[in-house]
Amino acid sequence: MRPIIVTAFMSLDGVMEAPGGEPGHRSSGWTFKDIELDPAAYELKGREQEEAGALLVGRTSYEAFAPVWPSMTEEFPGYNAMPRYVVSTTLEQEDPRWPATILRSLDEVAALKESDGGPIIVHGSATLGHGLADAGLVDRYHLLVFPVLLGAGKRLFSDTDKDKQPLEVVESQTYRNGITKIVADVRR
Question: How far apart are CA 27 and CA 18, in angstroms?
Answer without folding.
Answer: 7
